Amino acid sequence: MTFFKQIPLALLTLALLSGATTATAAEATKPNFVFLLVDDLGWGDFGCYGAEFYETPHIDRLASDGMLFTNSYAACTVCSPSRAAILTGCYPARLHLTDWIAGHKHPRAQLSVPDWNMRIEHDRILLPEALKADDYATGFFGKWHLMPNGQPDFDEHYPTSHGFDVNVGGREWGQPKGPGRYFSPFGMPNLDDGQPGDFLTDKLTDTAVDFLEVEAPKNPFLLYFAYYTLHGPIMAPPELVEKYKEKAKSFENTKNEFLNPARAGMVEKLDDSVGRIMAKLEELGIADNTVIILTGDNGGDDDRTTGGLRDFKGFSHEGAVREPLVIKWPGHTKPGSSCDEMVIGTDLYPTMLEMAGLKQRPDQHLDGISIEPLLTGEATTLPRQSLYWHYPHYHRTRPYGAVRNGDWKLIEFFEDGRLELFNLKKDPFETTDVAAEHSEKAKELLAELNAWRNEVGAQEMTENPDWVPENVNQKQQGNRKSRGGR
């Protein structure tokens, strides 16, 4: 099997010797965790969230077996900060890790980007480290993108340097960089290239399934699968591309969905992967003691993947940060349930600790709140009023900060202090800016946003002495037609 062939013998031996014995597996009380993180996942990509062109029967079944969240957010509109927030339980602003690594360069822009962090510091105890301290085996598969490429401490920030026993595929890459990209050869750490035509999502799933077979007899474990898909380059097996080309010919596109046959094929391969993992858990007899969490790192890379929400990845509006979140917790979460409470990626770390019956680490997951009461039905709200974002960078949007407080969302653009205010209950698609009409509410939320930035030590931008106003290009102005970047 792929996993056994590729993981170094010493590392595999360590994994086999750690944890409980086979005899105690049946007596295990701590749940296993399967964490599935999808790259560039749009609000409208799954059937359970309204997709009709894409086919996701396994993910839809997962939602029917667990709880679906309707107000779940990524901690940033781009990938690296969101991934760091999940692993640390901290806002990107607190970590000073606020852009995709290594970010865009705009030396002539109006504001200078702060000297931000391109790594997670080792003095932080990450989610896998917290679980390992209580005898969890930990495996990482897929996209890492949390390494300071080209800097002296590059080799000190692989997944295996941050609490994972095993790393398959993870390094500084934000997208597949191997010779075949999503097709063999892959050129990825600890992943064999397989046969010509093999697809990356399938091969990574092979190794994840092998990890389950190794660890299942001696629970507990954390399988952290961070898919490279659905990030570009958009490509899928030829037979799936043809399938969706044919489907598009007669498809009545009433929802303005993204009828991209290759992307639809990528979604189907993702769904197949989820189905294979769920089937393996059942085969091994551990499905009833395994929590499955499925979410994304930021919005889709096209405004037709966001279920009608405004904009997409890299922008400041809902389509860039509102994310699907499905959690199955057998015996605790009511199948087919849904939750409207606001949650964010920072919440998953403390939630998993509480699910496992482990002590919270409030000095680590400083910005996360356990959502366990929502999952068990003990509560329908959390003791929190607001969520925050801080993006002191140029991307498709100008630099901005944002706060969502109840039904209200305020966006502040740093260059000129311009404010946008939306009532998401009345206007979920952010079609009408009401900042002028509700100026007092805008001022109130701006004061709250400023207080939060001070509290977390958010890095501020400064005036750029090299600013050339006439050189500000369309991407810096937030041109909706620009679809580049990470």
Automatic annotation (TrEMBL):
Enzyme class name: hydrolase
InterPro entries: Alkaline_phosphatase_core_sf, Sulfatase, Sulfatase_N
SUPFAM superfamilies reported for this sequence: Alkaline phosphatase-like
One GO MF term attached to the UniProt entry: metal ion binding
Swiss-Prot/TrEMBL cofactor(s): Ca(2+)
Entry superkingdom: Bacteria
Transmembrane segments: none
Stretches the record annotates as Disordered: 460-486
Name this polypeptide is given: Arylsulfatase
Gene: atsA_41
